[in-house]
């Protein structure tokens, strides 16, 4: 618990016109840690991720990454370690350019950033594909030739290309089928164990977040209502909203779900 | 809704003002050449200077513009240089002729395009193919060539319709119809198939919406699904098609009126363009844009009425 | 399963080469390309191939019919029509080139900027484009004739500006839609500059539609140029197709044949450009289903094996196969599917994407997407095979007997009508209620599905209510005509989890109250566990296992079911945080 945080967000506020979508949100992520961010649509969870990435606005507050203030700095102006924040997005169908092969997609940031010469970058593509368990011949294919799960693996490889220290994962498995989802989650965990990368894992699904996170933050209408250790937040939440969220998600067992449903209805009646 | 319309009206007025202004400075920057044109090559420098002074174009351009604008706002567009009478009078004579043809043409086109488009959307097959072929043919045949062919066939060979001339609807409605059938036909034939294709696209698009499937599942009658729900939601796209076609017809009127010797605004444009009657050309551009603005405003109004999101805002 | 294996390998050729090749493989596309190529060659080689000097006058050839010397005859001034036609191709193509160059350069540049940056630049550009579109082109060009002088090319450059909005709008809309694609965000996150993103990522994807627009604009340019020349605004020294038409027009009563040749030349060239555009468009849309009709093998007569307990069984599906046309054969998305639904029972159909669960549901409703066909098997509703019913009899079942709750609440309400009207319409058609009766029942239903203010919702348009409310409205609509069977297709997938819990509760209450049967199509095992009496698990168009919910979850029989259930993340062990020893990174 004494490790210095890799990223801190202090009192972030974001407004779109008169819409206050993020209200004094503060979170921190330690090196090699996964922080889960749970909330329903419109809760502002994606807005935090985009602010950290530098592709969304910040009205007030501070984002500090490894000692550097990166608030409102666009990715192209980030240098040094600040450039080592990458992203994996939700929709595997729209997150890859359909007109570019996998190799072109992976090489572009490496060469453009000047991290690798084109020849070395090509060699690294093989290594990256290997890391995400895709065959080497995937390099010369187009996104349309892959399934949703495979595309998400390509997107993960792209994020890894710049040797990130933090990856913002915005609902990376919610568009995937159940069986694919489990395997992609395991890949995320495996990569973290191997490379020590930290994740901000944004999702609407408490069970998914519990599976991968060390700590969990719960958001509702732009506010973080609860932030604590994973086990406490996901199995013994303190805030009534988190309790509601937990009990609302049905479990795959008719007997236990009947009990959970009753508990949810009791909670709804009480509030 | 009122806000929306007020906004569209303001946009239209600004559009009209800016186009009139830009046009003014462009056409009045070339007046020197026009004066030589009007007087002929044998004109002396003194003749040119005299006419220049007489027409008031020896003054600075800005002064001329201020003068034109202050008169235009009162409905006075100045006097023609090469014809008798004021520009307003000339436009008052020619504009109704052109509008009567274009209005008739657009009405026929709207009906044909709607019928063909809906038929193609509901019974794909030969009618769909036919419209595809016709739209390629219509697009590639210039309307002035088509006009010539119509004259050769209907006026010269069959001799059933007059080749040239215009009869005012005030003097004889049947005469008017006979005189504008060929011009209107030449105007719309090129666009009607492509308009029908766009109507077809709009209807098919409306029929593909999720809520149409839900209406089927609810047991709503097929007639209501088609006529009430699908057509209603296809209206905005179809109206936009009409607005674009209307402008195309105005543009085409210049050539068509020339072929059929119709004394309308289009023929007037050609005539004044060749001799360089700049006040008349100014008046033509201003009045045509004004007509387009009014028509578009009307279409905006119809669209607003069809769309509850706009209607209730 | 197939996450790591993909049979669909090959096709490695770059997209652009295949586009050109595919266009040439299309007969019309090849013919159009050939004609355009010919016109270009004729224009370049005009001095070599023209039999006569196009400006030489032979006085006794005035309006002459064709002969060995003047193959297409002479024009009104006694010049060779064929030679003038050949030379006319030159200025026609040059004019088209100017128009395309001006309009595409300006329009695409403005479209890229407006679409990518949005904001003020976009507003200004859009406004200018609207203004230009309001101008009748020929009238404006005529008005500027004196300023522009007698060279047609200045006029064509101005016409290029007038056609800019087409390119601008096309590019802008394409860019605006691409801009929201996540791969643009990903490129920004990678640190790419805006100009690099625009040229590498945006322009690349919007290129094919621009090819279509170039072809169309070239066609328009040729027509307008000929029109201006026809009106006598061109240079009278240069032979042009439009000028030849004018000459033909002047001699229309003497030699009407003369108007044919230039007109044909214009039409043929323009038609080639249009057909080329169509060929490119068709190539881009190639993946869409073809309109060809495939024959359906007559299904074997189904035996009535279940006749004994048919009183209790409301729906009996036997050996169902559903297919979509795919080239010359059927692609079966559902096959050998058999199951029963008892009265008052909730059956869950669960599976991953592509398992055929929704297609099975739509087959029962008779609302398969265009091309979808029941190839084999029977669907018996209360003993009657509905696949054998005619359209009207089938439609009569919908709403009154079998109802449907869709997945996306917002897109399933007609945006143009008030919710009240949309609820009343089926009741008036199906149940024959009067307007007042239907209104009373609609209000009652809206209250019944838990909407706090029924009258307000009744008078609202769909855009005025939330997604959760819209789903309640759709459920009210589904039960409004007292159906015996309700088919719900992923009814909670688009909703937040707390709203989902409320909708599930509503469905459960309505079911027990009305005693109807329900088919619940979903991918979520939690939803199945919450609601269903029995469960069918589907995989790749087949049912792999069907059982009572309690049994299926406790003791799944099939490996596939076991695998799916093992993938459900629930109460997984929590990970312990260990700070990395090194400085991180790899």
Per-chain topology:
The complex is a heterotrimer of chains A (271), B (313) and C (586).
Chain A: E1 7-16, E2 19-29, E3 34-39, H1 45-53, E4 60-65, E5 68-69, E6 85-88, H2 102-112, H3 118-131, H4 148-161, E7 166-170, H5 178-195, E8 198-203, H6 206-212, E9 215-220, E10 223-229, H7 230-235, H8 240-248, H9 254-270
Parallel strand pairs in A: 3-8, 3-9, 6-7, 7-8
Antiparallel strand pairs in A: 1-2, 1-4, 4-5, 9-10
Helix pairs in contact in A: 2-3, 2-4, 3-4, 4-5, 8-9
Chain B: H1 2-28, H2 31-39, H3 45-55, H4 61-73, H5 87-122, H6 126-140, H7 143-157, H8 173-207, H9 210-218, H10 222-259, H11 265-275, H12 278-306, H13 308-311
Helix pairs in contact in B: 1-12, 2-3, 5-6, 5-8, 5-10, 5-12, 6-8, 7-8, 7-10, 8-10, 10-11, 10-12, 11-12
Chain C: H1 15-25, H2 27-49, H3 81-117, H4 119-133, H5 137-143, H6 145-148, H7 152-162, H8 164-179, H9 182-189, H10 194-230, H11 241-250, H12 260-284, E1 313-326, E2 329-342, E3 346-351, H13 357-365, E4 373-381, E5 384-385, H14 391-397, E6 402-405, H15 419-431, H16 435-448, H17 454-458, H18 467-479, E7 485-489, H19 497-514, E8 517-522, H20 525-531, E9 534-539, E10 542-548, H21 549-554, H22 559-567
Parallel strand pairs in C: 3-8, 3-9, 6-7, 7-8
Antiparallel strand pairs in C: 1-2, 1-4, 4-5, 9-10
Helix pairs in contact in C: 1-12, 2-3, 2-12, 3-4, 3-7, 3-8, 3-10, 4-8, 7-10, 8-10, 9-10, 10-11, 10-12, 11-12, 15-16, 16-18, 18-19
Mind explaining what this structure looks like?
The complex is a heterotrimer of chains A (271), B (313) and C (586). Chain A has 271 residues and is an alpha/beta fold. Chain A folds into three domains: 1-84 and 165-237, Rossmann fold (3-Layer(aba) Sandwich); 95-162, no CATH class; 239-271. Chain A contains nine helices and ten strands. Chain B folds into two domains: 2-72, no CATH class; 87-312, MetI-like (MetI-like fold, Orthogonal Bundle), CATH 1.10.3720.10. Chain B has 13 helices and no strands. Chain B has helices spanning 2-28, 31-39, 45-55, 61-73, 87-122, 126-140, 143-157, 173-207, 210-218, 222-259, 265-275, 278-306, 308-311. The longest helix of chain B has 38 residues, at 222-259. Chain B is globular. With 586 residues, chain C is of the alpha/beta class. Helix content of chain C is 52%, strand content 12%. Chain C has helices at 15-25, 27-49, 81-117, 119-133, 137-143, 145-148, 152-162, 164-179, 182-189, 194-230, 241-250, 260-284, 357-365, 391-397, 419-431, 435-448, 454-458, 467-479, 497-514, 525-531, 549-554, 559-567, and strands at 313-326, 329-342, 346-351, 373-381, 384-385, 402-405, 485-489, 517-522, 534-539, 542-548. Chain C has a six-stranded mixed beta sheet, sandwiched between helices. In chain C, helix 2 (27-49) crosses helix 3, helix 3 (81-117) runs antiparallel to helix 4 and helix 4 packs antiparallel against helix 8 (164-179). Chain C is elongated, with a radius of gyration of 34 Å. Classes of the chains: A alpha/beta (271), B mainly alpha (313), C alpha/beta (586). The interface between A and C is large, with 100 and 69 residues.
């Amino acid at each position: 618990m004494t490790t210095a945080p890799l990223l801190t967000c202090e009192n972030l506020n974001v407004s779109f016109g008169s819409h206050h979508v993020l209200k004094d949100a503060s979170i921190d992520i330690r090196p090699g840690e996964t922080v889960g961010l749970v909330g329903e649509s419109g809760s502002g969870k994606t807005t935090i991720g985009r602010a950290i990435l530098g592709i969304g606005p910040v009205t007030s507050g501070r984002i500090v990454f490894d000692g550097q203030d990166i608030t409102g700095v666009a990715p192209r102006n980030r240098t040094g370690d600040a450039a080592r924040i990458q992203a994996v997005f939700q929709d595997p169908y729209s997150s890859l350019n359909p007109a570019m092969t996998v190799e072109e997609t992976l090489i572009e940031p490496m060469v453009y950033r000047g991290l690798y010469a084109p020849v070395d970058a090509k060699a690294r593509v093989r290594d990256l594909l290997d890391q995400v368990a895709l065959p080497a011949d995937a390099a010369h294919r187009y996104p349309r030739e892959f399934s949703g799960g495979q595309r998400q693996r390509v997107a993960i490889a792209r994020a890894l290309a710049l040797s990130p220290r933090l990856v913002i994962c915005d609902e990376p498995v919610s568009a995937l089928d159940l069986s694919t989802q489990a395997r992609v989650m395991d890949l995320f965990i495996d990569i973290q164990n191997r490379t020590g990368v930290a994740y901000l894992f944004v999702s609407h699904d408490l069970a998914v977040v519990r599976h991968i996170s060390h700590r969990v933050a719960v958001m509702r209408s732009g506010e973080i209502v609860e932030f604590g250790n994973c086990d406490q937040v996901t199995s013994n939440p303190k805030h009534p909203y988190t309790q509601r969220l937990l009990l609302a998600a049905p479990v795959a067992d008719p007997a236990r779900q009947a009990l959970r449903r009753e508990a949810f209805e009791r909670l709804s009646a009480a509030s | 809704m009122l806000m929306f319309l007020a906004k569209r009206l303001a946009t239209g007025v600004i559009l009209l003002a800016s186009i009139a202004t830009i046009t003014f400075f462009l056409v009045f920057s070339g007046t020197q050449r026009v004066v030589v044109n009007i007087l002929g090559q044998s004109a002396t420098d003194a003749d040119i200077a005299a006419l220049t002074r007489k027409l008031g174009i020896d003054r600075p351009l800005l002064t001329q513009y201020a003068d034109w604008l202050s008169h235009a706002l009162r409905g006075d567009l100045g006097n023609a240089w090469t014809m008798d009478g004021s520009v307003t009078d000339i436009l008052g004579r020619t504009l109704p002729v052109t509008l009567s043809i274009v209005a008739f043409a657009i009405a026929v086109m709207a009906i044909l395009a709607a019928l063909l488009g809906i038929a193609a959307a509901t019974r794909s097959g030969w009618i769909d193919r036919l419209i595809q072929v016709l739209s390629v043919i219509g697009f590639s045949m210039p309307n002035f060539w088509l006009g010539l062919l119509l004259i050769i066939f209907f006026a010269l060979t069959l001799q059933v319709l007059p080749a040239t001339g215009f009869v005012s609807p005030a003097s004889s409605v049947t005469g008017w119809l006979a005189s504008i059938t060929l011009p209107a036909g030449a105007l719309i034939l090129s666009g009607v198939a492509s308009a029908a294709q766009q109507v077809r696209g709009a209807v098919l698009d409306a029929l593909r919406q999720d809520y149409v499937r839900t209406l089927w599942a609810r047991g709503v009658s097929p007639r209501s699904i088609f006529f009430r729900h699908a057509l209603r939601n296809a209206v905005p796209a179809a109206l936009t098609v009409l607005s674009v076609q209307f402008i195309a017809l105005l543009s085409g009127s210049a050539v068509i009126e020339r072929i059929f010797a119709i004394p309308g605004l289009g023929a007037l444009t050609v005539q004044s363009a060749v001799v360089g009657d700049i006040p008349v050309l100014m008046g033509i551009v201003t009045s045509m844009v004004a007509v387009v603005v009014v028509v578009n405003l009307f279409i905006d109004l119809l669209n607003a009425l069809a769309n509850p999101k706009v209607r209730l805002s | 399963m197939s996450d790591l294996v993909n049979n669909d390998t090959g096709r490695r050729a770059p997209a652009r080469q295949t586009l050109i090749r595919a266009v040439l493989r299309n007969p019309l596309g090849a013919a159009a390309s050939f004609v355009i190529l010919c016109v270009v060659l004729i224009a370049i080689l005009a001095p070599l191939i023209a039999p006569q000097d196009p400006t030489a006058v032979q006085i006794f050839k005035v309006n002459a019919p064709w002969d060995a010397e003047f193959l297409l005859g002479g024009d009104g001034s006694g010049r060779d029509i064929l030679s003038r036609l050949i030379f006319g191709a030159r200025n026609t193509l040059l004019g088209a080139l100017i128009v395309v160059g001006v309009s595409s350069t300006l329009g695409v540049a403005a479209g890229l900027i407006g679409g990518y940056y949005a904001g003020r630049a976009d507003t200004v550009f859009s406004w200018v484009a609207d203004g230009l579109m309001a101008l009748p082109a020929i009238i404006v060009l005529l008005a500027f004739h004196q300023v522009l002088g007698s060279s047609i090319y200045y006029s064509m450059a101005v016409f290029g500006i007038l056609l800019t909005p087409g390119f601008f709008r096309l590019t802008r809309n394409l860019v605006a839609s691409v801009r929201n694609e996540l791969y643009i965000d990903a490129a920004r996150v990678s640190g790419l500059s805006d100009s690099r993103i625009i040229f590498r990522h945006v322009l690349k994807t919007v290129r094919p539609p621009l090819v279509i627009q170039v072809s169309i604009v070239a066609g328009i340019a040729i027509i307008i140029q000929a029109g201006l020349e026809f009106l006598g605004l061109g240079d009278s020294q240069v032979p042009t197709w439009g000028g030849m038409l004018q000459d033909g027009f002047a001699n229309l009563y003497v030699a009407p044949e003369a108007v044919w040749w230039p007109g044909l030349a214009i039409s043929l060239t323009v038609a080639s450009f249009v057909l080329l555009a169509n060929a490119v468009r068709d190539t881009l849309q190639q993946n869409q289903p073809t309109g060809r009709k495939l024959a359906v093998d007559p299904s074997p007569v189904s035996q009535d094996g279940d006749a004994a307990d048919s009183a209790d069984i409301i729906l009996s599906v036997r050996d169902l196969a559903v297919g979509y046309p795919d080239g010359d054969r059927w692609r079966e998305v559902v096959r050998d599917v058999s199951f029963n639904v008892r009265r008052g029972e909730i059956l869950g159909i669960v599976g991953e994407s592509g398992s055929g669960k929704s297609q099975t549901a739509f087959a029962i409703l008779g609302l398969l997407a265009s091309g979808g066909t029941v190839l084999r098997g029977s669907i018996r509703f209360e003993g009657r095979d509905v696949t054998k019913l005619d359209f009207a009899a089938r439609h009569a079942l919908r709403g009154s007997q079998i109802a449907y709750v869709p997945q996306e609440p917002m897109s399933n309400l007609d945006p143009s009508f008030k919710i009240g009207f949309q609820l009343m319409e089926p009741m008036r058609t199906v149940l024959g209620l009067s307007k007042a009766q239907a209104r009373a029942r609609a209000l009652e239903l809206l209250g019944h599905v838990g909407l706090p203010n029924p009258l307000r919702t009744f008078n609202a348009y769909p855009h005025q209510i939330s997604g959760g409310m819209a789903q309640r409205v759709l459920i009210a609509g589904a039960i409004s005509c007292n159906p015996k069977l309700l088919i719900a297709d992923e009814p909670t997938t688009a909703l937040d989890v707390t709203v989902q819990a409320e909708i599930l509760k509503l469905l459960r209450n309505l079911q027990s109250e009305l005693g109807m049967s329900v088919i619940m199509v979903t991918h979520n095992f939690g939803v199945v566990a919450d609601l269903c009496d029995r469960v069918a698990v589907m995989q790749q168009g087949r049912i792999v296992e069907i059982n009572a919910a309690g049994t299926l979850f406790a003791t799944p029989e099939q490996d596939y079911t076991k695998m799916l259930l093992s993938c459900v993340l629930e109460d997984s062990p929590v990970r312990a945080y260990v700070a990395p020893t090194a400085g991180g990174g790899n």
